[in-house]
Amino acid sequence: MLKVLRSRWSPEYTKQRLAKPKPPSDAMAFGKALHGSLLTPEVKPTFVVLPADAPKYPTKAQINAKVPSPETVAAIKWWKDFETANAGLDVLQPHGNYGGRRLECTLNKFRSHRMAMAAIGEGHAEVSVFAPFNLGGSVMRKMRADWVCAGPTIVDLKTAMDCSPKCAGKRDEFSAQLYDLDYDMQAAYYLDTYNAAKPDDRKDNFVFVAMDWDEDTEFVGIRVGNSDEALLKSGREKYVEALTKWIECDRDGKWGEGYDPEVTSLSIPEFAAKKFRSIQLV
Fold this sequence. Notes:
Helices cover 42% and strands 20% of the residues. The protein is of the alpha/beta class. It has two domains: 21-112, no CATH class; 115-251, Alpha-Beta Complex (Lambda Exonuclease, Chain A), CATH 3.90.320. It is globular, with a radius of gyration of 23 Å. It starts with a helix and ends in a 9-residue tail after the last helix.
């Protein structure tokens, strides 16, 4: 809810988007398969990987043909049997950015990574916690952590385009992804919600385990990172601002468009202005 609100800062858009959620994507199906395989291996899998030798799915014309070819008949039967046997499961393609081969390679790399395995050592998976938030009104907060450690840490697993460390001339891509996709907000929100609900079991550390993938080489990179104070401060400012806005709209019953109806001033972003010593933003 908060990510949607922050995406356009329009309460009206947020209400409409939440009322009509986007269908699950391939990335979401892959993430669910990865989380389940690592965190709850004792639970029946929610996915199946399509065999590499599976026949192509018959087209509508092939299915409706008066005299289908033997190959089409065989393909229709294969898919009917496959869909019956795997009803309700997410189907991962054998290859591709969110395919079964990536899942296999990621699981193998993760299980051989000392710090990644230590991050999900003693603790509990998929922990849901509820706690109220009060500021100019009240709203119930919910969090569902990937992993809550027995110690002072909450852990979240993330897939990434690039989580490699920065070096001279290369920016830290995962830190940029973390900020742009509001992972910092998630970290602060989860810690604060958990501590409000369970003050006798405080959690002060939020750890991300990021995993990237290069399909050509089948390379999996893993990075374990602990959120620093600047990250948590940034995330806390984000979620408090968003929750306050939501409470205000809910309290007053006003879910206006959110876009300024008047003419506004446009300028270059602050980070761009910093490249030129002669430019000072007012």
